[in-house]
Design a protein that fits this description.
Blueprint (H helix, E strand, L loop, with lengths): L3 H4 L3 H18 L1 H4 L15 E4 L16 H4 L8 H8 L8 E4 L3 E5 L5 H8 L5 E2 L21 H5 L3 H9 L8 E4 L15 H8 L4 E6 L2 H13 L10 H19 L4 H5 L18 H11 L6 E5 H6 L1 H11 L7 H8 L20 H22 L14
Parallel strand pairs: 3-5, 3-6, 4-5, 6-7
Antiparallel strand pairs: 1-2
Helix pairs in contact: 2-9, 11-17, 13-17
């Protein structure tokens, strides 16, 4: 039986892979290696930060994220975030400049509560909010034509770097993070995978994954991403069933000719572009490469969304403890818990149904069952079998 302990690489294996990928990054990805410090990060700080004699305050006009704010700032309810982001370029106008990368990353998954969890984590007094929740840099934006550079990504944490710069290094420092949900499942198109690249740059950072019953996740994705862009008469339980069946059949057809990994990430993945991403529910297959490099419990935290929703107070305490944040008093925790939920129904106001047909649920449960069983074994938690599944999205 495969468990996380049997999957995780030894310290020696992780070090060997880190060295190999670092050489690849230095040779093939100079936009990253030219900015990273040769001597490593500042060990006196919690965040991976380093000093450079370069200044970058004049780069705001060409920053990728500044020019795409209409697309990315819908994550934020604060209309002043653009102004704060642009002003952050003026916070460090003289060398040396302190640059910082995220101390933690919420890496997945879509429609599992990542936005809600992120908002509550950055409400902890010790956490500095980045410019946007998710820059999707590691897995996507860096691959686009005229896409985001590594420097563009670094500037998402410029406000945090300025705050950290003013601190006297101490045991309990402020930290920053991000929440790009594509990081877990989108492996990129380099000779190295996304997880290997992240590990080569952020070997000590902490990762958080929040998961939900994959059958319900798929319906939620349909209601959130498909229905708003379809004719209202087409958004129905019957339409969801047709789309789900087509997606399941396509994935099974792919599996008949190649491996799960190829159907998820490789040449076979093109077979399954049916409008519903059933492959995102294969949590065991998605998590396994990350657990190899980021030990479960120490550097990787996995949360069931159902547990988070039903007992948020306890799960937030566990998350803050995992991140080695200072304990907070009951009043502050109550205020964080009381923050209104996000993305629970933000695009579903006009949707005419919220439950799938019984035959659809039976079909999807049967499809996901073997992967859920492997996940439960991997995490040593039968809760990930999802034997009692909710009826709504």
């Amino acid at each position: 039986m495969e468990t996380s302990a049997s999957v995780t690489y030894s310290d020696e294996e992780r070090t060997a892979l880190w060295k190999t990928v670092k050489l690849y990054v230095k040779d093939r990805l100079p936009q990253i290696s030219s900015l990273l410090p040769d001597s490593g990060y500042d060990e006196s700080r919690k965040n991976p930060c380093w000093w450079t004699n370069r200044t970058f305050y004049d780069k705001f006009s060409t920053n990728y994220y500044a020019s795409h704010l209409r697309q990315v700032y819908h994550f934020h309810e604060d209309g002043n975030r653009l102004d704060k982001f642009l002003r952050s370029f003026l916070l460090q106008t003289e060398a040396p400049t302190l640059l910082c990368l995220p101390y933690f990353l919420i890496i997945g998954l879509p429609k599992c509560g990542t936005t809600d969890l992120f908002r509550r984590i950055v409400s902890h007094p010790q956490v500095i909010r980045p410019a946007i929740k998710g820059g999707h840099w590691w897995s996507r934006k860096r691959h686009e034509n005229n896409g985001a550079t590594f420097l563009d990504y670094l500037f998402l944490f410029n406000e945090a770097a300025s705050t950290v710069r003013r601190e006297i290094p101490a045991e309990n420092q402020k930290v920053t993070g991000e929440g790009s949900t594509s990081t877990l499942f989108d492996m990129g198109n380099d000779s190295i995978s996304t997880v290997e690249l992240v590990y080569s740059v952020l070997p000590r950072s902490k990762l958080i994954v929040i998961l939900r019953d994959p059958t319900s996740r798929l319906l939620s994705e349909y209601l959130y991403f498909v229905c708003p862009y379809s004719h209202s008469t087409n958004c129905s339980a019957d339409d969801f069933h047709r789309r789900a069946k087509r997606a399941v059949d396509a994935f099974r057809s792919c599996l008949s000719t190649t491996s799960v990994a190829q159907c998820l990430h490789g040449s076979g993945s093109n077979c399954c572009n049916t409008g519903l991403r059933v492959k995102l529910g294969l949590y065991h297959e998605l998590l396994r490469p990350w657990i190899k490099l980021y030990p479960l419990g120490r550097q990787l935290l996995v949360i069931r969304m159902e547990d988070y929703s039903s007992n948020m107070r306890t799960k937030l305490k566990e998350t803050f403890n995992f991140l080695d944040l200072d304990p907070i008093d009951g009043e502050t925790l109550s205020r964080i818990v009381a923050i209104p939920r996000r993305n629970s129904a933000s695009r579903k106001e006009e949707v005419r149904f919220s439950s799938m047909l019984p035959k659809t649920r039976d079909m999807l449960n049967a499809f996901y069952r073997p992967y859920n069983e492997r996940l439960a074994n991997l995490l040593q938690d039968d809760g990930y079998l999802w034997t009692t599944s909710p009826e709504s999205a």
